[in-house]
């Protein structure tokens, strides 16, 4: 056991910036507008607003202090964050430096192609690299995240069947209970009926269940493998074949690619399309760290329907072109290319051997964790009868611990925050395993980090036995204590703007 | 840290009462044991409840070795405790019940357990026992004490039982670990009356935990909303001229409501062209209706927490009725519409549906994967086992 370090988060009770506002206070006073360009005279009256916008009026040091405090009230995105399914790997600073250079940061997407050759080359070469990893025939980077890439697939699926005159008939998209929830959600948003196959005793849905629902109404299968419990479905090729037999398409949601990078290729398993998340698997920041990219790749046949514009290498250099039979736009321009450039840098540095080794390390690290975690009294593994090794993560359960102590997984998660450990991942909902938690070690955390994380968990579990109140009422050393989550799903309570906050809190 | 305030820990108290003669009628062809113990014994019945009580309590002791337990005396409870090291056991005062325990003994024990301030009342029995328990709890304090049943009767229609004695123990342990976190839900106590009709006898609070799996935090939409939307979609699809048999259960009953019909949640109703042809129909009525329609669809719900599709609470859908359905419509059995909300599917201990028919050949025809509609535009597929 490591000796646990003392930790206490900064507590500032920081007000909202709007609450710091004082009329007339300024940080920076720009010169008055040139008379003939003054919006008040230059713009038509109909588009001028009647009242000034409610912007915070604060001095420069107030602004600096405010944001410094807010930054101190985070855990900094470099803590030991083993947040399963999110692959919270370290994002190399060199990527930030690359994308912050003028040659990237100062570009505008409306520039002529001839002035964007370096960027377009990076996009094209990264497309080629992902083709190499997946066996697909072309990638686009417009989707702003994994769910957006899944949605792109449903749009492509619609276009593909509409072209074949089968869209009226092919109304069903099949997924599984442990695929990422974006798969049923995007299928439904695109107007398809959704069939969710349950997870059975092997830890994945059964081929027989799939066969029971396949028909000439099947449009597509959308599936993760391994799923969100680190369990790899070994029958996946038979699944794909069965779907193809009835004329459906197969989409591989590679949200959990980290354990199989360089070890398998979606196209070789028969998939028609796949998705990589550059902001988790490919070394690009996620969460509060920056915008995301869901790289969507597909076969030549489906490439006809890709959203535009596409990047082509021609004899005269790189060009952007429209895709005449494609689904149109899923996002403006080419997507978050600053993130594509970071991922291109990361993958170039890693190389094919490097990412394969990274995949192996992430599986090894998880299995090391699993052995240590299962030695802790009260910790069990989901689907224990499925004895094959989990890949890059394992779904654990604190059910027995909760029965013994009354302390839940959420309590334990809260208390670990008191030791400076980021919240662990529980499980997507609905929970099929009671009191779940799902850490993912990845390849970037040191053995010392992983051991420290486990030591903190072990310590908290013991605290729950000797002083359950301490754990049940945690966190105590954090920025805030327990939150009342009861209003999180209540549109009458939550607010994302100052105006809504004032209205809903009865303050204005 | 202080130990006061809303999070203050206190030892949870479990109350236990066992109906030792419950379930005796089952194997000897009686549709219950209430008032028929003598007859059951005469036909050679053996007690079944004590063994099931011991299974549940042994598992509970493994899961929750540190508990305060209040138990009814003798055969009503104390006789069936495991070697309960770690449990602080209080046996209720009162005379040892005689060899022939009665419903009065159960009710008296429940009153005393409620008065003792138990946090959960675990009873072992069937629907008849559930009625006695519910009645006695209400007589003291409405539905103030959560109740959980260890299944040991002939009939277990009430939504208060674990699927098995062991899952009842699991649910009890998890509820006792953190009652305020999981909360309780209202559950119906139903039983067949003297005329053989299924009747609602009351409600009790049961731990909100389903037998196997805790539902999500930040819970999904309430059951009623899901069921209503699904039922509206189904109601809009009904074909003219086709006979629809709406099975028991709240979810299927919503289809009747969507059609503006006064269907019953506890029985089988028959609908055709927007008209209610029969309410709470018995087997003979159903056979008669099927003989007069050449197209028919059966709409079934799933017994919550148990996964029963046929054979619990819907025995009027007898093998004869099901065969008539198949005869009326070539797709009769394959075309059975099964409705269950995502919450209900998620609460099943495993993704399996059960069919319990006294006709193994017919049951085998129903086995295999079956589509279950869960919400508008959403479905899953569950394996039917017989």
TrEMBL record, chain A:
Q: What is its EC number?
A: 1.4.4.2
Q: Where's the Aminotransferase class V domain?
A: 163-405
Region (Disordered) residue spans: 483-508
Instruction: Give the Gene3D superfamilies listed for this entry.
Output: 6.20.440.10, Aspartate Aminotransferase, domain 1, Type I PLP-dependent aspartate aminotransferase-like (Major domain)
Ordered alphabetically, the record's keywords are: Aminotransferase, Oxidoreductase, Transferase
A GO biological process held by the record: glycine decarboxylation via glycine cleavage system
Q: Which InterPro entries match?
A: Aminotrans_V_dom, GDC_P, PyrdxlP-dep_Trfase, PyrdxlP-dep_Trfase_major, PyrdxlP-dep_Trfase_small
Q: Which NCBIfam families match?
A: PRK04366.1
Protein name per UniProt: glycine dehydrogenase (aminomethyl-transferring)
Organism, by scientific name, is Nocardioides flavescens
């Amino acid at each position: 056991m490591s000796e646990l370090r003392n930790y206490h988060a900064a507590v500032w009770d920081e007000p909202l910036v709007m609450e710091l506002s004082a009329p007339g206070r300024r940080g920076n006073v720009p010169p008055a507008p040139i008379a003939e360009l003054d919006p008040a005279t230059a713009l038509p009256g109909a588009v001028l607003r009647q009242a000034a916008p409610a912007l915070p009026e604060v001095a420069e040091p107030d602004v600096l202090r405010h944001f410094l405090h807010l930054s101190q009230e985070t855990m900094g995105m470099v803590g030991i964050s083993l947040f399963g399914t999110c692959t919270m790997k370290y994002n190399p600073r060199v990527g930030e430096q690359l994308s912050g250079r003028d040659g990237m940061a100062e570009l505008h997407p409306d520039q002529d192609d001839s002035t964007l050759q370096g960027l377009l080359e990076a996009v094209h070469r990264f497309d080629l690299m992902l083709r190499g990893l997946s066996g697909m025939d072309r990638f686009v980077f417009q989707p702003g995240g994994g769910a957006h890439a899944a949605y792109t697939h449903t749009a492509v699926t619609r276009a593909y069947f509409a072209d074949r005159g089968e869209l009226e008939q092919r109304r069903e998209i099949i997924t599984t209970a442990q695929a990422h929830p974006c798969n049923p959600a995007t299928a439904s948003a695109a107007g398809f009926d959704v069939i969710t196959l349950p997870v059975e005793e092997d830890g994945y849905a059964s081929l027989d269940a799939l066969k029971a629902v396949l028909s000439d109404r099947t449009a597509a299968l959308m599936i993760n493998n391994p799923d969100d419990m680190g369990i790899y479905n070994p029958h996946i090729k038979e699944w794909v074949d069965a779907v193809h037999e009835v004329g459906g398409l197969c989409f591989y949601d590679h949200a959990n690619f980290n354990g199989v990078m360089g070890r398998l290729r979606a196209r070789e398993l028969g998939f028609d399309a796949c998705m990589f998340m550059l902001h988790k698997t490919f070394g690009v920041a996620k969460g509060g760290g920056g915008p995301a990219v869901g790289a969507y790749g597909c076969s030549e046949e489906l490439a006809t329907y890709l959203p535009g514009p596409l990047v082509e290498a021609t004899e005269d250099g790189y060009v952007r072109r429209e895709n005449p039979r494609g689904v149109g736009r899923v996002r403006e321009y080419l997507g978050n290319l600053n993130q594509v450039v970071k991922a291109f840098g990361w993958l170039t540095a890693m190389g094919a051997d490097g990412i394969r080794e990274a995949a192996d390390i992430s599986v090894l690290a998880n299995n090391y964790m699993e052995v240590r975690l299962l030695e802790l009294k009260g910790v069990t593994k989901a689907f224990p009868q499925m004895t094959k090794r989990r890949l890059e993560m394992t779904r654990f359960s604190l059910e027995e611990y909760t029965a013994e102590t009354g302390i839940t997984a959420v309590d334990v998660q809260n208390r670990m925050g008191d030791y400076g450990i980021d919240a662990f991942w529980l499980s997507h909902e609905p929970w099929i395993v009671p009191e779940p938690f799902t850490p993912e070690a990845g390849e970037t955390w040191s053995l010392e980090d992983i051991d420290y994380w486990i030591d903190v968990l072990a310590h908290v579990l013991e605290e729950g036995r000797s002083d359950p109140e301490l754990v049940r009422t945690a966190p105590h050393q954090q920025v805030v204590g327990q939150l009342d989550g009861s209003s999180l799903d209540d549109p009458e309570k939550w607010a994302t703007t100052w105006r809504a906050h004032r209205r809903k809190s009865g303050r204005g | 840290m202080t130990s006061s305030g809303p999070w203050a820990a206190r030892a949870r108290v479990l109350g236990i009462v066992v109906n030792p003669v419950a379930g005796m009628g089952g194997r000897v062809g009686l549709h219950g044991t209430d008032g028929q113990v003598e007859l059951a014994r005469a036909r050679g019945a053996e007690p079944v409840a004590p063994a099931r009580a011991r299974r549940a309590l042994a598992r509970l002791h493994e899961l929750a070795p540190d508990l305060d337990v209040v138990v009814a005396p003798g055969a009503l409870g104390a006789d069936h405790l495991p070697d309960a090291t770690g449990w602080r056991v209080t046996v209720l005062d009162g005379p040892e019940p005689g060899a022939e325990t009665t419903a009065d003994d159960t009710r008296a024990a429940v009153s005393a357990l409620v008065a003792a301030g138990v946090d959960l009342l675990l009873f072992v029995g069937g629907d008849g026992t559930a009625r006695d328990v519910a009645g006695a709890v209400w007589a003291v304090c409405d539905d103030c004490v959560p109740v959980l049943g260890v299944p040991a009767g002939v009939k277990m229609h009430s939504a208060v039982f674990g699927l098995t004695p062991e899952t009842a123990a699991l649910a009890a342990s998890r509820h006792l670990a953190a009652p305020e976190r999981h909360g309780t839900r209202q559950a119906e106590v139903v039983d067949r009356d003297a005329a053989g009709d299924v009747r609602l006898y009351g409600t009790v609070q049961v731990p909100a935990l389903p037998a196997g799996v805790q539902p999500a935090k930040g819970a999904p939409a309430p059951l009623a909303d899901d069921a209503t939307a699904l039922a509206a979609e189904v109601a809009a699809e009904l074909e003219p001229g086709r006979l629809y048999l709406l099975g028991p259960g709240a979810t299927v009953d919503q289809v009747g409501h969507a059609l503006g019909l006064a269907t019953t949640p506890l029985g089988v109703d028959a609908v055709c062209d927007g008209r209610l042809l029969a309410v709470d129909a018995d087997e003979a009525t159903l056979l008669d209706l099927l003989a007069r329609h050449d197209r028919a669809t059966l709409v079934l719900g799933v017994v919550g927490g148990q996964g029963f599709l046929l054979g619990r609470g819907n025995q009027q859908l007898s093998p004869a009725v099901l065969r008539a359905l198949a005869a009326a419509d070539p797709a009769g059995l394959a075309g059975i519409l099964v409705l269950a909300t995502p919450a209900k599917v998620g609460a099943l201990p495993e993704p399996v549906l059960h069919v319990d028919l006294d006709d193994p050949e017919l049951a085998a025809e129903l086995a295999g994967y079956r589509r279950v509609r869960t919400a508008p535009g959403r479905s899953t597929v569950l394996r039917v086992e017989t």
